[in-house]
Design brief:
This protein has 349 residues and is an alpha/beta fold. Helix content is 34%, strand content 23%. β9, α4 and β10 form a beta-alpha-beta unit. α8 packs antiparallel against α9. 43% of the residues are buried.
Length: 349
């Protein structure tokens, strides 16, 4: 069988993200707050692309980039620093790159965005998708035309959905879900779209529509069903000191894609995704907070050391996550860079 061109492909909007952390509250009229931390990095669909690439997946991204300084930073960071393939993307003149300011407050966040519609229709970017083992789809609007072609070629499609500001929770989304291999909503989204008042009831309803469903429930962990294998699991959350929760869902999704492509059991897929997401929220910078294999190795070594010193909690974690030791790459892994407070000079890249 011919190897596909990519492990995973995706399409979407890349934002220039400015992340402010350590805020005591959201600002109110006529006030000024001082943020303890700041980071700048690619955002939007880039959160998912970077997370996938840092785990070693050959990642292709279709997006529009402006020719302004923000676009320069975004393109260079993704292609040169993070190894994301941008051959399906396009740079255009006189288009302001989308910008988002994310305010991290008490383990949650609020965002302010300025953007203009892309001058390049999405159909032009990914009309004929390359061969890939997996694709990631965002549901809620019109389904991208490439999705039908991807399904026809046997690509495994993973999807999520955003918050519906109209709170109508259109049934169209449930029709779109039928095209997926795996659906990864949070509990609020899952309950709203299925018209249920309990995450487990929402999970059961969705499992009748899509082969694999994972419902993330914040601090209560995640619940999942794989109707192909008959597995059903609940995985508790990991205790972490969250600095910036923005993009954690994208890291979860990228990690779930990798573990699915490796054929792991459902519980290991969910544990791995939760661990990667937990490591990401402890750093500032959304996409550039995503962990690499070196971060995973460091975490595992730390848990092993704590277990050796007699920590019962560490011993339980080690028993649950021991499978990661076998998943670590044999060769030295590429070091990853965290977000910086300013846009680096070209000479510093």
């Amino acid at each position: 069988m011919t190897e596909p061109d990519f492990d995973v492909i995706m399409q979407g909007t890349v934002f220039f993200d400015i992340v402010l952390t350590g805020l005591p509250a959201l600002p109110s009229n006529g006030t000024e707050l001082l943020a303890e931390g700041m980071g700048s990095c690619p955002g939007g669909i880039a959160n998912l692309a970077v997370a996938a690439s840092r785990l070693g997946l050959r990642t292709g991204l279709a997006a529009t980039f402006g020719d302004d300084v923000y676009g320069d930073f975004l393109w260079r960071t993704l292609s040169e620093q993070e190894g994301v393939d941008l051959s399906m993307s396009r740079r255009v003149a006189n288009w302001h790159s989308p910008v988002t300011v994310s305010l991290a407050v008490h383990r949650d966040r609020a965002m302010v965005t300025h953007s203009h519609e892309s001058p390049v229709p999405s159909l032009e970017l990914l009309s004929d998708p390359p061969s890939a083992a997996a694709g990631v789809v965002h549901l809620g609007g019109d389904i991208e035309p490439w999705v039908n072609a991807a399904n026809a070629h046997g690509m495994l499609l993973f999807g999520d959905v955003g918050w519906d500001p109209t709170q109508q929770w259109s049934s169209v989304v449930l029709e779109q879900v039928r095209q997926l291999h795996a659906f990864l909503p949070n509990s609020a989204e899952a309950m709203a779209y299925t018209r249920t008042d309990d995450p487990r009831a929402a999970l059961k309803s969705l499992a009748d529509t899509v082969p694999v469903v994972i419902v993330t429930c914040g601090g209560q962990g995640s619940i999942g069903v794989d109707s192909i294998t008959g597995e059903e699991e609940w995985v508790p959350s990991l205790p972490v000191n969250a600095v910036d929760a923005t993009g954690a869902g994208d890291v979860f999704a990228a990690s779930f894609v990798l573990s699915t492509l490796r054929g792991w059991p459902l519980r290991q897929r969910m544990c791995f995704a939760y661990l990667c997401a937990a490591l990401s929220v402890q750093q500032v910078g959304v996409s550039l907070a995503a962990p690499g294999w070196g971060d995973l190795a460091d975490w595992l070594n730390s848990i092993e050391a704590q277990a050796a010193q007699g920590s019962p909690a560490a011993a339980r974690l080690l028993a649950e996550y021991a499978f990661i030791a076998e998943a670590l790459p044999d060769a030295p892994v590429r070091a990853v860079r965290r977000a910086s407070a300013t846009i680096a000079r070209t000479s510093d890249a």
